[in-house]
3'-phosphate/5'-hydroxy nucleic acid ligase
Amino acid sequence: MSYTEVPGIRVPIRMWTDPSTVEDVAMQQLRNVSSLPWIKGLAVMPDVHYGKGATVGSVIAMHGAVCPAAVGVDIGCGMSAVRTSLTANDLPGDLSRLRSRIEQAIPVGRGMHDDPVDPRRLHGVPTADWDCFWSAFGELAEPVRPREERAAKQMGTLGSGNHFIEVCLDESGAVWLMLHSGSRNIGKELAEYHIGEARKLPHNQGLIDRDLAVFVSDTPQMAAYRRDLFWAQEYARRNRAIMMALFQDVLRKEFRKAKVTFDDVISCHHNYVSEEQCEGMDLLVTRKGAIRAGSGDYGIIPGSMGTGSYIVRGLGNAASFNSASHGAGRRMSRNAAKRRFTARDLEEQTRGVECRKDSGVVDEIPGAYKPIEKVIDQQRDLVEVVAKLKQVVCVKG
C-alpha cells in the first residue's frame, strides 16, 4: 500500500497503515509530535503503537532539534542476522542442548559477563578503534561515569523484554542466526539523564506534552546529548557484534564436523537518530521503532517468538524518509497480555520452537503482536523481501 495522509498540526502525518486501526492514545501522540515547532516531517510505520515519550513505529524529521524521549531509553536498539552454511538437515531433533549452549555463552536478563569480553579473541569483530571507543567514556555525562565497569561487563549481553536470540530457517532450509538488543543499562541511564535535562529548558515549558522536550542546535545541552547519544548508539552496535561473534562460536563448536561458515552480518538500529538530508534539508531523523530503508539498504523486520521474520532490502521511498517498520508491533500492552494469556497459551503458540514457555515471558506471546505478514504487506513500497525466516530456537531474557 502507499501511505494515507492524516492532517497534523504543523505537518501532515503520513501513515503506512489504516488510521482507523491505530489506538486513540497513539494518534494523539502523533498529533502532539506534529505540533513541535522544529518538525519538518512525520512518517508512521505499519507496526505503530503507543509508546513512552513518542509513538513506536514513527519517523520524526526535525530541523535543528532532537527529542531525547522520542529516541527512547534503549538508545541504538536494533537487530543483527547472518546466514550460515548449515541447513535444517544439520540440526538435531532435540534443540534443547543448543539453546542451553547459547544461554551459557551470552548472559541474558540482567546478567553480565564476569569479565569484559576481549573482542580480539573473537572472529569478525573489528578491534582497531576499540580502545578509542572506551576512552571516550570519561567524557560522557557525569552521573554515568561510575558505570564504566558495569558497561564493560554488559557488552555482549542480551537484556530482557522483547530482546531475543534465535536460530532460524529460511524457506530454502538454510540456517540463520538472529538477535535483537541495544545499549543495555548504560544507554538507559544516559537517556533518562538527558530526558530530565531537556524538560528543564525554558523553550520546552509551553509544549503540549512534556515528554516531547527537545534540545536545539548550537547549545551546550544539544552538544552534550549528541556526544552521549552517538556513543550509546555505537555501544549498541558493538554489543550486537560481540553477541553475534559469541553466537557464531557456539555454532562452530556444536557443529565441528560441518565446518560451519557465515555470510556477512546484516545489522541495523531501530531506535536512533541520524543526520540525513531529506527534501533538500539537513535534518535530524529520529527512528523510534523504525529502520533505515534507503535504496539497497538491508534490514531486519522480526515478528514474535513464535512467528516468522523477514530480511528486507530498502526501496528508498523518500515519503517515508527512507524508512520501514522495525517489527510486527504490539497490539496489546504487556499487562494486557498477562491478563489475557496463560503459560499454556504460550506453549500452544510457540509449538515447534525450543524456547521458554513459562509465565515469565507470557507478555511476549505471539498473540500480543500484530500479524507480521500484514505488516510486511503494508510496506511493499518501502522494502522488498529478501528472505523469510522461521525460528526453531528462541532465547529470551
Observations:
- The longest strand covers residues 383-396.
- The chain has ten helices and 18 strands.
